[in-house]
Automatic annotation (TrEMBL):
GO terms for cellular component: cytosol. It comes from Pseudoduganella namucuonensis. Belongs to the class-III pyridoxal-phosphate-dependent aminotransferase family. Pfam families: Aminotran_3 (PF00202). This is Putrescine aminotransferase.
Length: 475
């Protein structure tokens, strides 16, 4: 009886999918005819069918043609516990059978949302005792904008509206998310950013650190924040937002001096600090939250992705005591919320996902075992003639493709961007069973945290093979 409580459908469903045959061309025709994909130039596809993913297990995916692919990107930086976790599908099924939906408006709550809020308070730094749930990371960042403005209004400083962010940051695709982000291509469409959001440079040592040590550069790059605060007027600045490690911008790992200096500057001017941990949270850098690794003391933390390992959508904001106290004790009703804030099914998935992360010691593994191993194996790729620089932080890593190497990283000769060497390399990866993303000529990975040492070896060998193919191509 499939309706009996506790019935496990997931494993048989996966077994059936293993045997299923697909008409790829028909799926592709339907896709082209009807499905408008996110961040996709449909015209440029020129009618060429896109790849159809049908199944996932552990760190691997299978497409409709039966090809096996090593997913170096955890889907979209989210499948932290890997694919095919029956206990998550079971938790979701059980919750759907019991209470598929109820909202948290109008003085009501639901069990998984309460339990998850308490669990998040337990695993985050002690000053985070409250959480606001959303359906995505973008909605989390929209929530941040409304929260920090409300906070300063309540403190009698309504002029503090400006939020400072960084060029090349990614904070989502809603109007506020895309405005907080610093992607030129996004700002160019639709008249963004919205007012009162301004940007400073990103802490990219490769891009801007010439003539400095990484540590000197970290302090210098943080200094751009102070310059911007003084330019805008300190009494007008509400908050600074940043990803501890910029993800979509190309895995920009800041020098160790950067965040402590940013923190000092925020403290000096009384400005709120928002850590966008949508990618970095839930173990990716070897801590529950990367803020802990980088010496940040954020007032708000945006989360999504890894909270459910992407099995179902969920996001939110961890609200630190400084903000929570003012909003709760002085604010009355906060006129903000989503139908799916605290969705019971999503929260049930998150609780099981966090249980898996804990029981398998994944955060500790990334910190002390597989993370350092990945760092070592990935760094070895720098001996490849195409690789000018390779670095990593826990389970995010990137390498830069260069035309000719010099002794100092700032002297490498770069490729003509028009050659799109990164995309050539990505094509080889895709064609050879490896998903690695290209941001310009920087190739990046963020693999599932369950990846073993043997699988890291397998991945590094695949990457090296595809680098060889790329090298042969462009010679
Ligand atoms: N913030 C960061 C750092 C992200 O990487 C993303 C998505 O990639 C977002 C926010 C937006 O999250 P979502 O796509 O769930 O809205």
């Amino acid at each position: 009886n499939p309706n009996a409580p506790g019935t496990v459908l997931a494993a048989p469903a996966r077994a059936a999918a293993r045997a299923e045959k697909f008409d790829t061309a028909a799926i592709q025709r339907q896709d082209t005819a009807h499905y408008m994909h996110p961040f996709t130039d449909h015209q440029a596809l020129g009618g060429k069918g896109v790849r159809v993913m049908v199944r996932g297990e552990g760190i691997y995916l299978w497409d409709s043609e039966g090809n096996k692919v090593l997913d170096g990107m955890s889907g979209l930086w989210c499948v932290n516990v890997g694919y095919g976790r029956t206990s998550i599908s079971q938790a979701v099924y059980k919750q759907m059978e019991t209470l598929p939906f109820y909202n948290s408006f109008f003085n009501t709550t639901n069990l998984p949302a309460v339990q998850l809020a308490a669990k998040l308070a337990e695993i985050s730094p002690p000053r985070f005792q409250h959480v606001f749930f959303t359906g995505s990371g973008s909605e989390g960042n929209d929530t941040n904008v409304r929260m920090v403005r409300r906070y300063w209004d309540l403190l009698g400083q309504p002029a503090r509206k400006v939020i400072i962010s960084r060029h090349n940051a990614y904070h989502g695709s809603t109007m506020a998310g895309a405005s907080l982000g610093g992607m030129d291509g996004m700002h160019a469409q639709g008249g963004l950013p919205i007012p009162d959001i301004v940007h400073i440079g990103q802490p990219s040592y490769l891009e801007s650190g010439r003539g400095m040590t990484p540590d000197e550069f970290g302090v210098a790059a943080a200094g751009w924040l102070e310059q911007k605060i003084l330019e805008v007027g300190a009494d007008k600045v509400a908050a600074f937002i940043g990803e501890p490690v910029q993800g979509a911008g190309g895995v920009i790992i800041p020098p160790a001096t950067y965040w402590p200096e940013i923190q000092r500057i925020c403290d000096k001017y009384g400005i709120l600090l928002i850590a966008d941990e949508v990618i970095c949270g839930f173990g990716r850098t070897g801590r529950w939250f990367a803020s802990e690794l980088f010496g940040m003391r954020p007032d708000l933390i945006t989360f999504a992705k890894g909270v459910t390992s992407g099995y179902v959508p969920l996001g939110g904001v961890l609200v630190g005591d400084r903000v929570a106290r003012v909003l709760i004790e002085q604010g009355g009703e906060f006129n903000h919320g989503f139908t799916y804030s605290g969705h019971p099914v999503a929260c049930a998935a998150a609780l099981e996902n966090i249980r898996i992360i804990e029981s398998e010691g994944l955060v500790d593994r990334v910190a002390n075992d597989t993370g350092p191993y990945l760092e070592r194996r990935f760094a070895e790729l720098a001996d490849h003639p195409l690789v000018g620089y390779a670095d990593s932080c826990g389970f995010v890593a990137g390498l830069n493709l260069v035309k000719a190497k010099a002794a100092a990283v700032h002297d490498h000769e770069l490729f003509d961007p028009a050659l799109e060497v990164g995309m050539v390399c990505r094509g080889h990866m895709f064609g050879n069973g490896m998903i690695m993303r290209a941001v310009g000529d920087r190739m990046i990975i963020a693999p599932p945290l369950v990846m073993t040492r043997a699988q890291i070896d397998e991945m590094v060998a695949l990457i090296r093979h595809c680098l060889d193919l790329t090298h042969a191509d462009i010679k």
